[in-house]
Amino acid sequence: MSCAADDDIDPENPLNKPDVPENVQAAIRTLIEWAGDDPSREGLLDTPKRVGRAWLEYCEGYKEDPAIHLSRVFEEVGGYEEIVLLKDIPFQSACEHHMAPITGKAHIAYLPDKKVVGISKLARVLHGFASRLQVQERLTAEVADCIWDNLEPQGVAVVIEAQHGCMTGRGVKTPGVAMTTSRMMGCFLEDPRSRKEVMSLMGY
Ligand SMILES: [Zn+2]
């Protein structure tokens, strides 16, 4: 006896992977050729489809407004008036100048006023903005602004450290070199003691 779900399975595509339009595949074949290889050799035959699907995943952040993750807030914080910090959040993004990977970690902190969110939501906001073509400076600012606008906290601090594939694998070829960007808002911008406290919690 088969259930309804079985009927939905396409034997040609049992994992229900997204279709990759022919023009996208052709573009990737062109790139392979431009790089100096033969897109018709066996090992590369399915590469255009795989690359197409991979880019759908790398850029899945375009499908949503990351602020959606901050829409469910808890207003009863039991008098908690200290910094909330999510440290060492690994992430991957892609640089908009070379479409090369950006890999690194982020530290995200805020000092709540009346609203707090489930801690995993901060990582979801990061991933929402990271899963787009990015520059690190803008990613840092977008994450901080999103928390600032939606949680109306007393302060936000975002620090991102990342390696850029366009710098480690091409150009000056400097593997291991990381770039650090930060954005401080509210009390972390205005009050040196608060900034020092959050930076030391982040391990700086
Ligand atoms: Zn780049």
UniProtKB/TrEMBL annotation:
The keyword Ion transport does not apply. Residues 1-11 have a biased composition (Acidic residues). Residues 1-20 are annotated as: Disordered. NCBIfam families: folE, PRK09347.1-2, PRK09347.1-3. HAMAP family: FolE (MF_00223). Zn(2+) binds at residues 95, 98, 166. This is GTP cyclohydrolase 1. Pathway: Cofactor biosynthesis; 7,8-dihydroneopterin triphosphate biosynthesis; 7,8-dihydroneopterin triphosphate from GTP: step 1/1. It comes from the Bacteria. GO terms for molecular function: GTP cyclohydrolase I activity. Homopolymer. Toroid-shaped homodecamer, composed of two pentamers of five dimers. Keywords: GTP-binding, Hydrolase, Metal-binding, Nucleotide-binding, One-carbon metabolism, Zinc. Pfam families: GTP_cyclohydroI. It is an enzyme of class 3 (hydrolase). Signal peptide: none annotated. It catalyses: GTP + H2O = 7,8-dihydroneopterin 3'-triphosphate + formate + H(+). The lineage of its organism: Bacteria, Pseudomonadati, Pseudomonadota, Alphaproteobacteria, Sphingomonadales. Its EC number is 3.5.4.16. Belongs to the GTP cyclohydrolase I family.
